[in-house]
Amino acid sequence: MPKQASAKGRAVVTGAGEKILVATLADEVPGPDGTNRFITIVGLMRIPLRDTNGTEMYRCVLGPVLEPHEVLGVSCLPSIAALNLNIAELAECSMTSFNAEFDADSGQVEVSIELFTAGAVDSISVVFSLTILAAA
């Protein structure tokens, strides 16, 4: 029988000024080679974009610190949740790409989101769900 899931939340501010609010849920699940950990992180990334036009990449590292042999897989599903616009001007915003992969330097998962903005976009909020399957 799996152990009780645990959850925790925190706020992170990155070097580029993005504020990331995260909540983490971890549970043990049976796998073919024994018990594995299923770690789900849901978050909201608030990114200030004043005077930013064109394509920019935004990155953050999340999750517990793991060894490379512990990471069995990662996936991420982001979505644009809110835009703060100057309504006196025209604006355009889109997510052009995203990726999640294990970062051996930090021992955590790096989430990368590429955004295109033009015009009067002051800030953007991106919600995401990051899932990590790790050996126990």
What does this protein look like?
This protein has one domain: Immunoglobulin-like (Sandwich), CATH 2.60.40. Helices cover 0% and strands 74% of the residues. The protein has strands at 6-13, 19-31, 34-48, 54-62, 71-85, 91-103, 108-119, 121-135. The strands form 2 sheets. It has a 5-stranded antiparallel beta sheet, with no helix packed on it. A 3-stranded antiparallel beta sheet has the order 4-7-6, with no helix packed on it. It is elongated, with a radius of gyration of 17 Å. It starts with 5 loop residues before the first strand and ends with a strand.
What is the 3D shape? Answer: elongated
Strand content: over 45%
State the CATH class: Mainly Beta
Strand order of the largest sheet: 1-2-3-8-5
Structural class, from helix and strand content?
mainly beta
CATH topology: Immunoglobulin-like
Distance between the termini: 15 Å
Number of discrete helical segments = 0
Task: Compute the average pLDDT.
Answer: 83
Tell me the number of structural domains: 1
Computed CA radius of gyration, to the nearest angstrom: 17 Å
| Helix-strand pattern | EEEEEEEE
CATH architectural category: Sandwich
The low-pLDDT segments are 1-8
Percent helix, as a range, is: under 10%
Question: Tell me about the biggest sheet?
Answer: 5 strands, antiparallel
The total of beta strands comes to: 8
